[in-house]
Specification:
heterotrimer; A alpha+beta (310); B alpha/beta (462); C mainly alpha (339); A: 310 residues; alpha+beta; 3-methyladenine DNA Glycosylase II, Chain A, domain 3; Alpha-Beta Plaits; 3 domains; 9 strands; B: 462 residues; Ubiquitin-like (UB roll); 6-stranded mixed β-sheet
Chain lengths: 310, 462, 339
């Protein structure tokens, strides 16, 4: 008897709730554009929010219902965009794949440590408090706010600076927004990248005192660049490479041989090695020639050497 | 805790006051060879430098002019030659534009000044109309630590009626004794300054004056009461020992029992709070035409060899003050500008004394909080001690979860960053630092929302 | 050293701290539980000591092992929280508990009750109670075996009627015979019986190890309140509510109800109210929240005792109220300044 009663009671409750659910689902039904779901399913589904909307579904909704020119998913590949365009019956402007790079090489071994920081391990917190435990007040702070915010695991913290994995990076730009020192920027995703690994606006001598690998704005790279892609803005004390103009020749990297403030990755590294080797050879040859000339000049009159010197 | 003494009603902590330098009289430090004067020593818009390199200046000469309503003049504290106008490290922890002046040791004043001794008759006779202007000209800011331009405080909007002026002699921060010493050694000047402020506000009706002092300074209370007895409507209030009694809102609550509404200024409840040292300099500026060129700084903490109170010119390097006190001990580990609760930790002692520096504190390893953060065990002590009635522990969790939108309902912007929760935390969590991050993020959200609302309004109009 | 060249440590204020931190709090709670533990050993003999030691050691070992090999995080047994959980668990077990049951309890307490949620400060439920309730449901017979082999209590038992007390606590006894026709007789027997308030208070009733002596527990709690480790709000609200409900029930139906002091002093109420409900991690932040929490615990305890299937409801009541803590925290806010 008890069993029957309990079965009945539970069954009744189930029926009542089911009816309530059915009614409410009918009554409170919100008609939704079926296209939204289709678009959302094509998106990367990382919900990174780099587009400025709450997740991929939010982006899809905005994209279908109220598209604004220039709106884009920074992460989606060209094929995905094409597919979305097909669904909507329009064509979408292609977005170039980007990646994030760090403009600092302030590893603990390179930059002087001037104090010890105790407190919340967050770049934003430390930056609010003071100029950081590194001597350079423009450097990467190194507590990994960018790594925490990265949804693709592309950033690791090594020796006090952020290291970016070019493969994993999707160019969503969340880290660029998060960085309180603004030492991260987005560049084209190409076979390689050449960049100035310094953000210091300090004058040359100060940079030299603080850091082994800072840009002192000597301007050697500007001269060597065949495409005029490098500029030192007046008053900025810092060289910057225009990514759009850069042809990845690697000459500037080889030229910056004192402070090593220009870095390359990917295939250019090899090109740089070759350039440096060549330069060294040339130098050796010059030295040899000079030595030979000197050796030859030793015998004749002293007036000849004077001429060479002048 | 003595019973029957007034104090504020909500939260607060009882800290060991550690006033090591209370008994040491104020010593005058000789003016330094070079001074470094930041052009922004106050809250609000930075002043604009009006001197150039190699220009000769005299004491009290304007070297940076106030720009904007909330701003303050900066005067030269020495006579000499301007050596540079460049970015230097300041006690804010960052580099700021500073004017570097080489002292010629002649101590020539730019304008003549008088030396009228403070008394009730002097204030009675004084023509008050020029007082606020004189305060503005002398570049006086709040000397308790916040450095709010005093002239702005003394000229509230015409519809605001002030009936109470409170002098803040609480000095609730442990270690610091500068205000206590000024009250002992210069009580007459302070009380005259208070009478002067009261006179400024008395055109709209009678004004009552209070001087709040914590009960751990009986000698200060006695001296101030003696001085105050010569004036009418001035009362010295002895307060129970509790931090943060020196907070404006807490002090008003403790003395006159009024609660300043959330997001409002003390003037909303008819009160004005001034620091005791500020009151003294207001007297000097308004009566004697003396510029604000020096202040009393407490150099203390177990990290310095001798704890002292020093009268120093603005722009003197911290290093000089510390070395005058015998230098630092071997286990000194933190250098703090201000008190241990709300002071700012510095990474170098090569920063100048500014108008807001009330103390230089050198903490040893055993005194300073050098613990790494441990998990919150939800002991709830932070909630119990919060003088503003907030829930710091919950706020901390919300910030950890990056759920910044929720901070608004937790009324985060009410936080006065007194550090009580940080002090009491069983897990040594850096609550104030988290709250500061949260405030920035919340303000971003509020700003975005405001912009959006303005945008929709515009669209609606279209 | 030159002041100028000194390398300083930089952080955000406050730069000084209150010395009463997590490990000191935990250690003081353990200290406060020592009188109750000593009393337990006096009352139950060597059995109790054995359970207490196994409880503490196994809890610490479980925490260390899980953190080192499973979670691969720093081992935090230094903050005494694991030892405290083990001690509390042991105090909630009968003296006759076999060693393996105590170990299983520790494993559940620390492993599932605490570390699975992310460790200290993250657990929604009191870990010791999670362990105890799991054991109560898993081993109901062992967990209600109140047989005594040594100590003061076995001496006492020789003098009093065996059928009344050897196998059950007064609360359990009433519950077991509730509804039968001699409930009234039993109640009358207990209510007239010579176990007066004093005996109950100092500790001569059967029960879990820790709950025998309310006096010892109270001593420990007073020490903690003096040290500002314990809040008085929760125990006051909890015990007060239980007392009021027990009294009301007795006056409504005196022939079927135990005297209120049985409800107050014979079960696990004091242990629960003073040391389990007040666990900082699982109780509300605010003063008013703690009062609500205490009252809720009291009401649920009495509901379970009077109408539920178990004779004792303190553990369940606290665990159930633990669920409400986040809600209490959100809706019961402290009074803000200037609003």
């Amino acid at each position: 008897m008890e069993i029957i009663m309990s079965v009945l009671v539970m069954g009744l409750i189930a029926i009542v709730l089911a009816v309530a659910l059915i009614i409410s689902s009918k009554k409170f039904h919100v008609p939704e554009n079926p296209l939204i779901e289709k678009v959302a399913s094509l998106l990367p589904q990382a919900n990174c929010g780099a587009c400025g909307f709450p997740g991929c579904a939010g982006f899809a909704k905005a994209f279908v219902e109220d598209p604004v020119p220039g709106m884009r998913c920074p992460v989606a590949s060209a094929e995905v965009l094409k597919a979305i365009g097909e669904v909507l019956g329009t064509s979408i402007g292609e977005s170039k794949p980007m990646r994030a790079v760090l403009h600092c090489n302030g590893k603990h071994s390179n930059v002087q440590t001037v104090s010890e920081y105790i407190g919340v391990r967050s770049c934003a917190a430390a930056n609010m408090l003071y100029t950081g435990d590194k001597a350079c007040m423009y450097s990467c702070i190194g507590y990994g706010d960018c790594a925490k915010v990265c949804l693709f695991g592309a950033i690791t913290m090594e020796d006090g600076i952020a290291v970016f994995d070019a493969e994993k990076c999707t160019g969503c730009g969340l880290c660029v927004k998060e960085c309180p020192r603004k030492v991260i920027s987005l560049v084209q995703k190409r076979i390689s990248n050449v960049r100035v690994t310094c953000s210091s606006h300090d004058k040359g001598p100060v940079v030299r005192k603080n850091c082994k690998v800072g840009c002192i704005a000597c301007g050697k790279c500007v001269k060597v660049c065949p495409k005029e892609a490098i500029t030192v803005a007046p008053g900025s004390n810092l060289a910057r490479i225009d990514d759009a103009k850069c042809i990845l020749c690697g000459k500037c990297v080889a030229e910056c041989d004192v402070m090593h403030a220009i870095a390359a990755d990917g295939r250019v590294v090899k090109a740089v090695e070759i350039i440096i080797k060549k330069k060294q050879q040339e130098k050796e040859e010059k030295q040899k020639a000079a030595a030979m000339a000197a050796g030859a000049a030793n015998n004749p009159a002293a007036s000849d050497t004077k001429e060479v010197k002048s | 805790m003595a019973f029957g003494l007034k104090t504020f009603s909500r939260g607060g902590i009882h800290v060991d006051d550690r006033k090591y330098s209370h008994e040491s009289p104020i010593e005058k430090l000789p003016a330094p060879k070079t001074v470094v004067i930041p052009i922004s020593q106050h809250i609000g818009a930075p002043a604009k430098a009006v001197v150039t390199k190699d220009q000769a200046v005299k004491i009290g000469q304007l070297i940076a002019e106030k720009s904007g309503f909330i701003s303050a003049n900066v005067l030269s504290p020495v006579s000499g030659i301007v050596k540079a106008v460049e970015a230097r490290m300041t006690p804010t922890g960052f580099k700021q534009d500073c004017i570097v002046i080489e002292n010629d040791m002649k101590d020539e004043y730019f304008e003549a000044f008088t030396a009228v001794a403070p008394s009730a008759e002097v204030i009675e006779k004084l023509d008050i109309s020029g007082a606020v202007k004189a305060v503005e000209k002398a570049g006086i800011v709040g000397m308790g630590g916040a450095a709010f331009p005093t002239s702005v405080k003394l000229s509230p909007p015409p519809d605001v009626k002030i009936d109470t002026v409170i002098l803040n002699g609480v000095e609730c921060e442990p270690y610091l004794t500068a205000d206590a010493r000024i009250m002992i050694e210069d009580a007459d000047r302070i009380v005259a300054g208070l009478a002067l402020i009261m006179k400024i506000f008395s055109k709209n009706g009678p004004v009552k004056g209070y001087i709040g002092i914590e009960a751990n300074k009986p000698d200060s209370i006695q001296k101030m009461a003696e001085a105050a007895s010569k004036y009418k409507d001035i009362e010295v209030v002895s307060l129970a020992l509790k931090y943060p009694q020196g907070g404006e809102k807490q002090l008003i609550n403790a003395i006159v029992g009024r609660d300043v509404p959330s997001g409002k200024l003390p003037s909303a409840v008819g009160c004005v709070v001034q620091n005791v040292a500020t009151a003294a300099s207001i007297y000097d500026a308004a009566v004697n035409n003396r510029p604000l060129i020096e202040r009393v700084v407490t150099v203390t903490g177990m990290g310095v060899k001798k704890q002292k109170n020093l009268l120093v010119r603005f722009g003197t390097m911290f290093t000089e003050l510390i070395d005058y006190c015998g230098g630092v001990t071997d286990d000194a580990s933190m250098l703090i500008c201000g008190g241990p609760m709300m002071g700012k930790a510095l990474q170098t002692s090569e920063v100048p004394v500014t108008k807001a520096v009330s103390g230089i504190l050198v903490l040893t390893q055993s005194e300073a909080n050098l613990y790494e953060e441990a998990p919150c065990i939800r002991c709830g002590r932070c909630v119990d001690v919060c003088p503003m009635g907030l829930q710091p522990g919950l706020i901390n969790k919300v910030i950890d979860a990056a759920d910044y939108g929720r901070l608004e309902e937790l009324s985060l912007l009410d936080c006065i960053e007194c550090g009580s929760c940080n002090y009491i935390c069983a897990g040594h969590e850096r609550l104030v630092q988290k709250i500061k991050i949260g405030k920035v993020k919340l303000q971003e959200i509020l700003k975005a929302r405001k912009e959006k609302e303005a945008q929709t309004k515009k669209d609606d109009k279209k | 050293m030159e002041t100028k060249d000194k390398k300083w440590i930089v952080g955000q204020g406050s730069h000084i701290y209150f010395p009463q931190d997590t490990s000191k709090i935990m250690f003081q709670v353990i200290l406060a539980l020592l009188p109750a533990s000593a009393m337990a050993v006096y009352v139950f003999g060597f059995d109790a000591l054995k359970v207490l030691l196994i409880g503490v050691i196994s809890a610490v070992a479980v925490e260390a092992l899980i953190q080192k090999y499973l979670m691969k995080t720093p081992v935090t047994i230094g903050d005494y929280s694991a030892a405290l959980t083990g001690l509390l668990l042991a105090l909630n077990l009968p003296a006759s508990s076999p060693w393996w049951m105590v170990c299983i309890g520790s494993l559940i307490s620390i492993g599932i009750g605490k570390l699975a949620y992310g460790g200290l400060g993250q657990n929604p439920f009191n870990p010791a109670l999670v362990g105890r309730v799991a054991l109560l449901i898993g081993f109901p017979a062992l967990m209600t075996d109140w047989s005594v082999t040594g100590g003061y209590l076995s001496e006492l038992y020789r003098k009093i009627p065996a059928e009344a007390l050897t196998t059950a606590t007064p609360l359990g006894f009433i519950k077991a015979y509730s509804g039968s026709n001699f409930t009234a007789d039993l109640v009358a027997y207990f209510n007239s019986y010579s176990i007066n308030l004093k005996t109950l208070f100092i500790g001569a009733t059967s029960g879990s190890i820790g709950e025998v002596s309310e006096l010892a527990l109270l001593l420990g709690a007073l020490y903690l309140i003096y040290k500002k480790v314990l809040n008085w709000e929760i125990p006051a609200a909890f015990i007060g509510t239980v007392g009021i409900i027990a009294m009301a029930a007795y006056y409504v139906k005196p022939q079927a109800m135990l005297l209120p002091h049985y409800h107050l002093f014979s079960g696990g109420l004091f242990l629960g109210a003073l040391f389990m409900a007040t666990d900082m991690v699982t109780s509300p932040f605010t003063f008013r929240g703690r009062i609500v929490f205490g009252i809720g615990c009291g009401v649920l305890t009495m509901l379970i005792r009077l109408y539920g299937g178990y004779p004792e409801g303190v553990s369940f009541a606290i665990l159930l109220m633990n669920i409400f803590v986040p809600i209490i925290d959100i809706y019961i806010k402290p009074k803000r300044f200037g609003v």
